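tool_call predict_complex ligand=LMY7XDAE
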Amino acid sequence: MADVIDGNAVAQSIRDDLGDAIDTLEDERVTPTLATVLMSDDPASETYVSMKQDDCAEVGIEAIDVEIDPDAPADELFDEIDRLNADENVNGILVQMPVPDHVDKQAVLRRIDPEKDVDGFHPENVGRLVAGDARYKPCTPHGIQLLLDDAGVDPEGKDAVIVGRSDIVGKPMANLLLQKADGGNATVTVCHSRTDDLAAKTRAADIVVAAAGVPEMIDGDMLSEGVTVIDVGINRVDADTEKGYELVGDVDFDSATEKATAITPVPGGVGPMTRAMLLYNTVKAAGLQHGVDVPLP
Ligand SMILES: Nc1nc2c(c(=O)[nH]1)N[C@@H](CN(C=O)c1ccc(C(=O)N[C@@H](CCC(=O)O)C(=O)O)cc1)CN2
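tool_result ok
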């Protein structure tokens, strides 16, 4: 039976540990400030943004909540980004993804000042990550590195298989696990919808990161004994509950726990870490922009 990695607990310890860094900034009269921009009426996106706002309040980060009608012209979003870029009080800007289809996502990412891009999605920050000189590690993969560390799993020399090649998770995760640095040095395979015989790849893995967005697509038959399973999927499936749905991951938890040594649950695994690392990047951004050497956890 697998150990269940408690993402809520690790995320809480990161929020607690950010206190010293935030105090150091406050001593210099800097209140770290994050602007979240939501251009969507997707209920999941609304939930994530509201949780991010609550997290900011908990640790003492000022949160600015910008909402744009999803039917508004793209220029409304670009104008808002320009305004936030120019606002010296704003240290971090996060545009919640996905944006509506009529908005060019790449243009949005390029528009954000790379020094305020606390998602780490601007091409300049992606380039720095690939070069091994990350300014802001993207939140989900960074959080996964810390979960692996907390579980005592060192990727060095291990075979890591990532299922999903998204810009938010799959691609940056592959880079971080590959890098010649702590939390890296793995041999990495990135699988996707065109991969032949996915099960053969996942069975050969010591670490599986499931980030395909397909409910319970990876089950115990696709895993080897002793594997570490990181489930990034957060899928709302219809269920007879108060909310009318339940959250399930990309991994079939019950059968996977029979094989894994350690596994993240959904909810309460990777999701809280995504939010915690956003706070981390915002505090880091405030320090960099004000020349304050902050003691990051
Ligand atoms: N600009 C960005 N957009 C998106 C990102 C991102 O990193 N930056 N990632 C994903 C989703 N995401 C962040 O916004 C996210 C997903 C899940 C959670 C979370 O805390 N999940 C909870 C359950 C929440 C619930 O009840 O629904 C959990 O897993 O325990 C936070 C953030 C897409 N967009």
